[in-house]
Design goal:
This protein is an alpha/beta fold. It contains 9 helices and 8 strands. It has helices spanning about 30-40, 45-60, 65-75, 105-115, 115-130, 145-150, 160-175, 180-200, 220-239; strands at about 15-20, 40-45, 80-85, 85-90, 95, 135-140, 155-160, 210-215. The strands form 2 sheets. The protein has a 5-stranded parallel β-sheet with strand order 2-6-1-7-8, sandwiched between helices. A 3-stranded antiparallel β-sheet has the order 3-4-5, with helices on one face. Strand 3 and strand 4 (about 85-90) form a beta hairpin. The structure holds cytidine-5'-monophosphate. Cytidine-5'-monophosphate binds next to helix 2, helix 4 and helix 8.
Length: about 240
């Protein structure tokens, strides 16, 4: 009897990777989600990952400036990132924290997690695994085109005037009755940009081969249409 051993090698193959980086409140998340829908792609909001680790560390009362303690918190809990009805949903140890991670205190503390090299390394690894399981992906954050997916098919860098970004963020916050003034919102955004641009690891910057899109005078649909057209164009030229 001949026994036939078949060795299967499973290759994970992502056909299309589109990255969208940019400063806070530049519209990345909404644009990435809608663009992913148009392309029939999965959507990844990497900011939500940094926020989730921040929340877990805060709940554990971890010293946020202690990198090893942050890494422990990341490894101690089970984080789940899924997409439901086009929305990125996050759970920690099976508890849904999708809304909690948007709390202003989590937003303010995320910079500690973002500046911790070992934590970033793990999160980038998770992002790559998420992409490897999917055929097409639109991923957004700060370092997606520069670090996580440096060989992405199409890279965008979305930007907008700080005053316009503050106005957009304010419109979002007003619906949640947060009570922040426009000036406070703009100041907080600018501080977050500074911290994102100036950290040593995975800083916010434009990849050399990214297409810069200024969204100051564009509405969401116009931005999505523009990006969609560019992706189609670039992909058809690559074939
Ligand atoms: O995009 P969002 O505002 O949700 O991100 C929250 C924070 O997570 C950012 O201010 C940034 O410090 C961090 N972040 C990051 N790298 C990413 C995505 C987010 O450092 N790829």
């Amino acid at each position: 009897m001949v026994t036939l051993f078949l060795i299967f090698e499973f290759y994970t193959m992502t056909d299309l990777i589109v990255t969208i980086d940019g400063p806070a409140a530049s519209g990345k998340s909404t644009v990435a989600r809608l663009l992913a829908q148009k392309l029939g792609a999965s959507f990844l909001d990497t900011g939500a990952m940094y926020r989730a680790v921040t929340l877990a560390a805060m709940k554990d009362r971890v010293d946020l400036s202690n990198e090893d303690a942050l890494l422990d918190a990341l490894q101690r809990h089970k984080f789940r990132f899924s997409v439901r009805a086009g929305r990125m949903c996050i759970s920690i140890d099976a508890v849904d924290v999708t809304d909690l991670i948007r709390h202003p205190q989590v937003t303010a503390n995320a910079r500690y997690i973002a500046a911790a090299p070992k934590v970033r390394e793990k999160l980038v690894e998770m992002q790559r695994r998420f992409a490897a399981d999917r055929e097409k992906i639109v991923t957004e954050g700060r370092d997606q085109g520069t670090v996580a997916f440096a060989d992405a098919d199409v890279k965008f860098y979305l930007t907008a005037d700080p005053a316009e970004r503050a106005r957009r963020r304010q419109a979002e916050l007003e619906t949640k009755d947060d009570g922040e003034t426009l000036e406070q919102t703009q100041k907080a955004l600018e501080e977050r940009d500074q911290s994102d641009q100036n950290r040593d690891v995975g800083p916010l910057k434009t990849a050399d081969d990214a297409i810069i899109v200024d969204t100051t005078h564009l509405d969401i649909d116009q931005v999505v249409d523009k990006l969609h057209g560019l992706v189609k164009d670039i992909c058809s030229k690559k074939k």
